[in-house]
């Protein structure tokens, strides 16, 4: 019986940490939810980036004198530096407010979602395919 009680108590903090982001009211909760949104966007970007790299893994472009994959890796590294520096600047701009975490996370999410869409459109879609996304 004691083991059961200890097990249930161990689960209590996890249950308390689960929050409904649609009902977040406090600054820490709003910031945490914004960070979770960014993490979801970052996961989607990483999955898209892997798909794009895989698309050029067995490509003939290097045999034809191109290095699409190498250029893409270099571009992605530069883009990550840009995104992080840009969103850090947003964070710094709001240094006097409690909204700064939310603003940085919103910036990270927005730029990350834009990059995910960009990778899809530029490297995975056929050049003559219509743009069906927002």
From TrEMBL:
Q: Which organism is it from?
A: Dyella kyungheensis
What name has this protein been given in UniProt? DUF1311 domain-containing protein
Keywords of the record: Signal
Query: Which residues, if any, are the signal sequence?
Result: 1-18
| Keyword Signal attributed | yes
UniProt xrefs under Pfam families: LprI (PF07007)
Matches recorded under InterPro entries: LprI-like_N
The taxonomy runs: Bacteria, Pseudomonadati, Pseudomonadota, Gammaproteobacteria, Lysobacterales
Annotated Lysozyme inhibitor LprI-like N-terminal domain residues: 21-119
């Amino acid at each position: 019986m004691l083991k059961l009680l200890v097990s249930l108590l161990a689960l209590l903090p996890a249950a308390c940490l689960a929050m409904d982001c649609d009902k977040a009211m406090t600054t820490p909760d709003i910031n945490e939810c914004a960070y979770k949104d960014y993490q979801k966007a970052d996961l989607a970007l990483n999955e898209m980036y892997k798909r794009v790299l895989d698309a050029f893994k067995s490509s003939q472009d290097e045999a034809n004198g191109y290095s699409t994959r190498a250029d893409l890796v270099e571009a992605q590294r530069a883009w990550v530096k840009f995104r992080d520096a840009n969103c850090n600047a947003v964070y710094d701009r709001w240094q006097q407010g409690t909204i700064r975490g939310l603003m940085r996370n919103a910036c990270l999410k927005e730029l990350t979602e834009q990059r995910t869409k960009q990778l899809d459109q530029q490297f995975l879609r056929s050049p003559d395919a219509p743009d069906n996304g927002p």
